[in-house]
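Comment thread on ticket #2218

A.B. wrote:
> Attaching the input chain for the structure job we discussed in standup.
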Amino acid sequence: MSTMDDKVEVAEEIDPYHYPKHWEGDALASDGGTVHLRPMTPDLADDLVRFHSQLSERTRYLRYFGPYPTMSARDLARFSTVDHHDRVAFVVLLGGEIIAVGRYERLTNVGDGHSAEVAFVVADAHQGRGLGSVLLEHLAAAAAECGIRTFVAEVLSENRSMLGVFKQAGYQIKRSFDGGVLHLEFAVDPSEALLTVRNFRERASEARSVHNVLHPSSVAVIGASTDRFKVGHAVLVNLLRAGFTGPVYPVNAENRSVQGIRAYAAVSDIPDPVDLAVVAVPASGVEAVLDDCLAKGVKALVVISAGFSEAGPEGLAAERRMVEAARAHGMRVVGPSALGVANTDPEVALNATLAPVLPPAGRVGFFCQSGALGIAILAAAAERGLGLSTFVSAGNRADISGNDLLQYWDSDPATDVVLLYLESFGNPRKFSRLARRLARNKPVIVVKSGRHAVPAGLAATSVEVDEASVQALFEEAGVIRVESIAQLFDCALLLAYQPLPAGPRVAVVGNSTALGVLGADAARSRGLTVVGDPVDVGASATPQEFAKAVGDALAADDVDALIAVFVPPVAIPGTEFATALRETLAGSRKPVVTTFLAAEGIPDSLAVLGADGQPARGSVPSYPGPERAALALSRAVRYAQWRERPGPDPEPLAHPELVDVARARELVQGWLADAPEGRWLTDDEAAALLDTYGVEVAAFRVAHDADQAVAAAHELGFPVAVKAMGEQWRDRSDLIGVRLDVSSDDAVRIAYDDLREVSGNSSVYVQQMAGKGINCTVAVQDDPSFGSLISFGLSGVISDLLGDRAYRVLPLTSPEELIRAPKAAPLLTGYRGSEPADLDSLALVVGQVAALAEHVSQIRELSCGPILASPDGASVTAARVRIGPEPTRADLGPRRLR
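C.D. wrote:
> Ran it. Output below, let me know if you need it in another format.
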């Protein structure tokens, strides 16, 4: 038996039932099934004995280094009673039964007492599901909380599966070998490599979990009705009409058959396995249905039924009980209040939704939170000929969410474009991470509603994120944000069927001068560059002449995309023009959008059909007018430009020699030691902290009377600025609390008397005068659920009134891009002949502030301003910093379903 099991008894004074509640939760195995993790408590002793007795001799030998057929009473007490600090144990439960156990024990007599021995064992039937990796992650997170820095493990050299868990976990492991036993040692702190491995496993397990929902081999419809006006009837009929390739089982206790198919009184009566169950019964009956599905071993549940969290506290409690029970038995849930799920793959042909009409098969994945809008959205997509690969309407999103679908589509070879209709965020930090990675390869187009109100059914599982944060999240993640469903489809048609533009240069070709001018104006208004004048082939042009003009324009080296505007002539059918145009564009690597016949979608005559007879890559989208065509094209241009930008890693600091990370963290930790709950730093403290990153605040002194003010002015050197003290005098554009260019003793005294009278405060700031420049501000604010945002803008009433600030998510990839983003930024670059500011110096200040906020996680708020940007540099005249305990990050730590 390994040395872990030769330890002292647990101290009597500890409460073995009291453990950190956040250690308990649900997780996904590598096959997509759910399990429940919780710390060990003494009431699980009998279950532990049962678990041990069911282990094979081989598994017991590999874990305990010997036969160990039964647990002694002493061992059972030691294993089942732990202190949740020096001795920690987790169990993995499925359906209430233990299927894996992991534990660590602090090695008090080894080294500095910050090491622990770790071990785990998985039931034979569940080995190969990645449960060892999940246990190791949770044990490491608990150990780090308890001050343990290093894990050690003793593993038999023949225990290849256990060695594989440690090897593949991403830890930097030291190894030694003695008599057939490997001694492993590794730090538990999460490294970048470890987080990369964790995220990869998370993606694989969540993608597999969604795959199980969208690729069932059999479906049961619970509540299938013979009444055509009921929801259960609609779902069953839609499944059958779509031609689902597996068996469909109606569940109806009152009828022997529904739609000519034998019906069963309960799911448990179905003789064959059931992968997916669609629930369409009243909310009051869902609990009984769930129990039946759990007993049957159903893998996934789609709950169409309403009346849960949107109905009030009792409904919310019922919803949570449903999800907890489902996850505890390995099942995922879509809904409740869901429209359903669909997969157009001919090998699946799944339409488990209330929508009677699905769009054709295609390569676009669609996630929709709203069940009510879902039918209309699907009908609109079908009308436009936009082909979908998969569709999920999650309703209240009690379990499966948009983040799960992002994981699935990231690795789905059948999906090229992702559409999201979002009303809220459950885990915005995770959304940012997933969307940023996915958008590098596949466009992600989002309609985000709920700016001012979130539906009741989603409020319980949502995180409130302000509009500026949402916009910054989307921009940094490369997400294409649109304002309406119509715009969603406009972008999707372009990105699903046409190549990405290489740049913003656009040619306009048409057979109408007026329409061509409209197209050029629309393109310019959207920030596109129109190359030359619109080409007008004339109303009498033949199809071949029209197509040749388009081809010639596309062939030009200075053209990246083309807008073709077309008015059908009277004498020649429009289909002849479409055929000529389609043939000319075959194989083109430049995108083309049209207003062909004012059609909306993919006209049949402009469709390039794939093997399945549906529009494929190369089909040309048409829009009702040039304005919508130009808008879709401009968004594709911006997305293509984002893809060309560097990846998510921030640019290196311009002057790393100015940075003292250790000193910055030491200062903050010292201040927090005296104020653990956090506080605002004094002006001197804020300046000292910024100085550790090379950001110098203009020197200042605090004076409490006129003589001190004069002395401070002499110390700093004339001229000086004298400023009133107090929060109400900060950042005021009217400068009523500031006296500038004070250049003599008498002037200092006069300024002091004026400000004391204005503010009612006998203390003032005396500060070195900075060179004249354009006032700017940079600020960082942290959101525990979302992450840190950095903003930049020009100071002043007008900028504040118009909200002219640019926002980015930390880590900041390009300070230069941020300072050029506000609409007033041209003032910094020589607007109307003025001398441009030193943008390199300004970018350095912004970059160093961003790096400080990123590296010192206890910074809750930070602002610098005014920053005076001039041709001679950038001078920071004031700074404010608030520190506090590092927030709990919803997207960090071990894998856990939230």
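A.B. wrote:
> Thanks. Noting for the ticket: The radius of gyration is 33 Å.
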